[in-house]
Write a structure and sequence with these properties.
With 146 residues, the protein is mainly α. Helix content is 53%, strand content 0%. The N and C termini lie far apart (51 Å).
C-alpha cells in the first residue's frame, strides 16, 4: 500500500533524491512526503528545482501560507526542501535560508511568547517557567534511589 509507484521515466535529480533518502534509511512514508513536497515546489517554479533561488523559496513559502497550509505541514515542507538543497544538491547556503513556518507564528522568541503557545501549564509565580509535563504516578518511585 505504501509502495512508491513509478508512472513514467524518473529524472536523474529525482532519482538522486530517492537514492539519498534510501541511503539514510528514510521510511517509505517520509520518502513519499518529501517527493510530494519537492514536486509541489517544482510545480510552482515551473522549472527544475535545482535552478531555484532564495527568493523562489521565500515566495513559495508565502504562497503556501496564503493558501492556508497549516504550520505543521509547512514545517514538513521546510524539512523536505532543506534535505533536498543540503544533501541532494549540496547547497547548504540556500538551505540555511529556509526557515520553519512556526517561527513566523511565534513572532519574538521570548520565553513568555513561547510559553503562551505551549500546551504545558505555566507556574503562576514564575510565568516564564513551565511546569513538568506530567505528574509522577505510583510506579515512578521504583526508579528513584532509596
Amino acid at each position: 500500500m505504501n509502495e512508491l509507484i513509478q508512472i513514467g521515466p524518473i529524472s536523474p535529480l529525482r532519482q538522486r533524491l530517492i537514492d539519498d533518502m534510501t541511503m539514510r534509511r528514510f521510511s517509505k512514508e517520509t520518502q513519499r512526503n518529501y517527493l510530494r513536497d519537492v514536486g509541489r515546489f517544482a510545480s510552482l517554479l515551473e522549472r527544475s528545482p535545482h535552478t531555484a533561488s532564495a527568493e523562489d523559496v521565500r515566495q513559495f513559502q508565502i504562497e503556501q501560507r496564503q493558501a492556508g497550509v497549516p504550520a505543521p505541514t509547512m514545517n514538513s515542507i521546510v524539512s523536505a526542501l532543506r534535505f533536498f538543497f543540503t544533501h541532494t544538491l549540496d547547497g547548504p547556503d540556500l538551505a540555511r535560508r529556509i526557515g520553519p513556518a512556526s517561527l513566523e507564528i511565534i513572532g519574538p522568541r521570548t520565553p513568555r511568547a513561547i510559553a503562551a503557545l505551549s500546551p504545558l501549564p505555566t507556574c503562576p509565580l514564575y510565568p516564564d517557567a513551565t511546569l513538568p509535563a506530567r505528574r509522577m504516578n505510583r510506579t515512578d518511585h521504583a526508579f528513584r534511589n532509596p
